[in-house]
Design a protein that fits this description.
The complex is a heterodimer of chains A (277) and B (312). By secondary structure, chain A is mostly helical. Chain A has a single domain, classed as MetI-like (MetI-like fold, Orthogonal Bundle). Helix content of chain A is 73%, strand content 0%. Chain A has 14 helices and no strands. In chain A, helix 2 crosses helix 13. Chain B is mainly alpha-helical and 312 residues long. Chain B folds into 2 domains: 52 residues; 169 residues, MetI-like (MetI-like fold, Orthogonal Bundle), CATH 1.10.3720.10. Helices cover 74% and strands 1% of the residues of chain B. Chain B has a two-stranded antiparallel ribbon with strand order 1-2. The longest helix of chain B has 54 residues. Classes of the chains: A mainly alpha (277), B mainly alpha (312). At the A-B interface, helix 1, helix 3, helix 4, helix 5 and helix 9 of A face helix 1, helix 4, helix 5, helix 6 and helix 7 of B. Chain A: One of its GO terms (cellular component) is plasma membrane.
Chain lengths: 277, 312
Amino acid sequence: MNLALDLKKLLVTVVLAFVGILFVLPFAWMLSASFKLEGEVFTYPIQWIPKEWIGFSNYKEVWFGDHPFWKYYLNSIFVTVVTTVVSCTVSAMAAYGFSKVHFPAGKWLFFIVLATFMVPQEGILVPQFILFRMIGLFDNHWGLILLGSFSVLGTFMLRQFFMGVHNEFIESAKIDGAGHLRIFAQIAFPLVKPAIATYAILRFIWTWNDYKYPLIFLRTDALFTIQLAMQKFTSINGEFYSLIMAAAVSAILPLLLMFVIGQKRVIDGIAMGGVKG
Amino acid sequence: MHSVTEVQTNVSRKRKRRGGRMQRMESLAGFLFVSPMLLGVTVMVLLPIVAALYLSFTEWSMITGIEGIKWIGTENFDKLFHDTKFLKGLRNNAIFLLTVPVYLAISLILAVLINKFVYMKGFFKVIYFLPYISSVVAVATVWRVLFHPSMGPVNQFLMSVGIDNPPKWIADPQYALVSVMMISVWISIGYNMIVYMAGLQSIPRDLYEAADIDGANGFVRFFRITLPMLSPTTFFLLITGIIYTFKVFDIIAVLTAGGPAGSTNVIVYYLYETAFINLKIGYASSQAIFLFLCVLVITFVQWVGQKKWVNY
């Protein structure tokens, strides 16, 4: 019985592994093409292991060539890291305020914030664009950062966790004379750190991958993020597919690292966001 | 006696006053904590909604400056429903909806299998999650090369197995939308699978044990227990998936830019083109309001529907 069951399990594993390989084939192809001579990219049957490895020069061209990726990388890193930090701070503060401080308007304000969740980003791009042009945040990294910093989802997610912090902690800290700022920084924040880490990783991935905001809110080439650079690189290098694939690998790599490091957190965060709605 | 009550009222008055002060401090603290978020939401979301609503009734090309704004009433909306390009976009959005049931079904099957019937669960989660985590720009770029009409690996493979005239995929108006939809399904599976797996974890084990005792086989258990117990998850994914298809943009912008011949034009891409390429702010705003109403209606359906259709 046990053996039969295991056999079944093994069989399903093999089948799913095969499907999984088909699933990630585009990535394998991308990786392999990025190391190839241009002339070998499209040879058929596909040579998964390049005959001649010129990966080094491909990547060198992408990173330090005419449109050096390292500059765009710095832009992306700056925007993504600052957005993540600001967004986590703002969301954690709001989440604490809405869950652990009791003030009359609190429920209503939370309801208003939550209601804006329904507003599609795409529907308010135009007024945001006009506003940013008026106040000088258009074509500016800080404008992008601002756009990504007020996440209702983050507030909602973290609020769930702050609600799980026992009120006794907060009461006794109050009796000891601590104010809310101190309670937040020294008691509540450390207790929900894992949740904040989860949200931070998700925010990092979303911001890094964002294409729409940079496309609309950035004009100057020197400010481009990696996603815009990728797109520009493709239109300039049209036929140099091995270079384009090296660029694509470069654009995905940091995320992959981020994901491998925080895999459990990412998956738990997604699952939680999904189930709780 | 008299003095005692007086003292008591004094004390309670004092306590009340102190309570009032503490309550005020508490309110102030609460307000300070939520104010950055409130400020952000007000300036970045609420204000723009009002502005979008106003602008949707005007004609304004950004070049003319603020003075150039002209109130034209509902003209934009009239125009919208006679604009063949917009209607085509709307139709494409409707077709795009078909991706949702497809990836929901695949995700569910994968979730059930991975949850119970495989070794190395973690590995499979990562594999199927990869497309979702990767940037749409990079992934779409790779697919554009894979789908290359003559040299692309996809068509080379098809020709090698005897299909002499394979479709030209994103270069062919007939197949472009379907191609984009296929890629979209591929991207969406990871996310939906993970949410389904979380849903599976929350189904009580004793239901399956009871079914085992009654001699139910795998299929009966799946259709009588798993599927109904997952209905809230399915419903949630269905609604968010539908909303997502209304907002699809990145993949279209990178892969096809609405082409060829408008065959992959969708409402948000058209909105983008109208506003940021043709600079017709008023007309674009009316499209934005239309999009907003669509999302609102779907959210409303969710809110009403979850009570009726879903088993909790």
